[in-house]
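Sanity check record (used in CI):
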Amino acid sequence: MAGLVDFQNKEGLKSFLESMEVECNYHSYHKKDPDSCYHLVDYLEGIQKNFDEAAKVLKFNCEDNQHSNSCYKLGIYYVTGKGGLTQDLKAAASCFLIACDKPGKKSLAACHNIACLAHDGWVNEDGQPDLGKARNYYTRACDAGYASSCFNLSAMFLQGAPGFPKDMDLECKYSMKACDLGHFWACLGDGIEKDEAKQLHKEQQKSVQFLTFG
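Expected output for Cytochrome c oxidase assembly factor 7:
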C-alpha cells in the first residue's frame, strides 16, 4: 500500500496516515490482534510522537495479550519514566519477566534485564541483590546466545559474593563463550593468568553490561 502513496503530497500523506491509524486501532482493539497493537505503538511513537498514548497501548497489549515485545518495551518505559509513566523498576521487572517467558525478538534482552535488576536489588521487596535469580536469568540468556549475559556471568564468578563463591573455571567458561559471541571485553580478558585476575576484576567491574534498552 505504501508504494501507492505520493509522499510529496502532504494532503495525500495525511489521509494515508489517518487511514493507517484507524486500521491499526481497529485491528488492535476490536480484532484484539497483539501484533497490530504493537504496530499501532510504532505508529504512535514514530509518526505522532505520542508516547503517552503509546504507553497505554503497550500496557493493554502486555497485560491483556501477554505480547512479548510489548512487555519488553513497556518495561523500558517504566525504567526511563517514559510516556507519562512513573519510573518503577519493580514494575519494569514484571514486564521483563513476561517478555522473557514469551517468544519474541526481545525475549533474551528481557531475560538479561531481569538478571540485571535482580543483580542490583530491584526485584525483591527488601531491596537486596538476588544473586541466585541473577545467575539463573543470565544463564538462560547466555545459553541462548546473549553475549552480555555470558560476560556478566563471568564477572559474577570472578568477583564472588557472600553465598556466591568465586569460581575461576566457570569464569573462564563464560568469558570464552562471551568472546565467541563477539563481546569485546570478554575477548580482551581471554587467556589471562590467575595472578592478573585483580586487574581484570577492576576492568570487569567497570564494564558489566547492565540494562539493555534497544
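The mean pLDDT is 83. If this sentence no longer matches the regenerated C-alpha cells, the check is flagged for review.
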